[in-house]
Amino acid sequence: MENISRRSFGKTLTTAALATGAPAALEAQGQSKGQAPGPHRLRFPEGFLWGCATAAYQIEGGVAEGGRRPSTWDTFSHTPGKTYHGETGDVADDSYHLYKTDVQLLKNLGVKGYRMSVAWPRVFPDGTGKPNEEGIAYYERVVDELLANGIDPYVTLYHWDLPQALQDRVGGWESSETSKAFAEYAGYVSRRLSDRVHHFFTTNEFVCFTDLSYKIGQFAPGLRLPPAQANQVRHNGILGHGLAVGAIREMARTGTMVGLAENANVYVPVMETPEHIAAAQKATVVLNGAFLSPVLSGKYPDAYLSREGAAAPKYTPDEMKAIGSPLDFVGLNVYQPDYVMADDSPLGFRVLPKQTSFPRMASPWLYVGPEVIYWAIRNVSEIWKPKALYITENGCSADDVMEPDGHIYDTDRLMYLRNHLANVQRAAAEGYPIKGYFLWSLMDNYEWADGYSKRFGIHYVDFKTQKRTPKLSAAFYRETISRNALA
User: For the chain, how are helix, strand and coil distributed in percent, rounded to 5?
Assistant: First the structure.
């Protein structure tokens, strides 16, 4: 988001590997055995894009520098009781100052793409109005540093750091004024950066900045709105995406590619039989009815509107046309599955509960079912037929510990990544339009309401010293990239 004993011969080999300093030793071993993967290897298509992903508030710090003003996450994290031990993103990984160091981490992995986000309150401190030149200049420097090191920036325009000024002034995503303000910001950033950035994601994970933020209060701004208001927040979120697509098309250079990154619910058939596959795909449409379905089809599913009844969102035909704006690619953030079987209910499917014994990673929500990533790609491809797909996030939390020898042996993360990547390869081999994979995350960072208690990175960060240390998973990812095949 695992255990069998080894025979004595295996123990001897493991002990020998540890004695030599494992990550370096294992990497050297892989290099010395013939680097060209044989036909039995799980190879990826030529030109497959390998990358890593991060988000501004989770890594940057520098929250009061360069003209940046507070976001709702600054306010929320400084409110007692809202985050783990009251931890904030005030410093995070200090990437605002250490971005060149972080670019070298990327270069050492061999990735060719970096999915980063721009902080809205760094560019428009008041949400709208006059842009902050110092803020956009910072991102120009980051982009230039990436390009100088052979890494293409893939820029997310909104990863949840809403300017607090907009929340104060219009109620944030409760108002379509925020949707319009987001389009203004998106147009400006794409105009400034599209001479060097060729792929923009509008938003990241609708449910997290709508439901989690305005319906259950787990994320900033921490509100608990009744159903009708919460559904209107959802609508304003996808409207913001749609209006931003139009603004980018108008303001960015010709040829700029536009999409979004969405953590859609992924429904996996309990068995690969026609009836269960059909049930999983119907669930994909109906149960993503608030977000992905209207974005990719231009309309809300009837089953969603019927279920919400009087609380359903209010909208106009023009809004739905904007929401359904054609996209150049779709990004999918994939972590954990839901399993579906066909039944004789009115909907024709049933989502199955997970037993208490179902395996999980360090985060309690992160169930392990690697086939989820294959079905995420297949379901979206077969239902909506996008031009291109990217896995824009995939990774897991783990209880990482630095051993006395200075290494982090995150074998559980290797297990998670290896099995998920095998399923990405399956989707590619079957001809689905999967073009790249962005691992979450480049390094340990501020994990929102979980503060610094959950580590998702393939580089270990000592948050007191800001030292970055590659984990065993970094060596695994580097080897996979170098082979363009599963290591």
Answer: 45, 15, 40
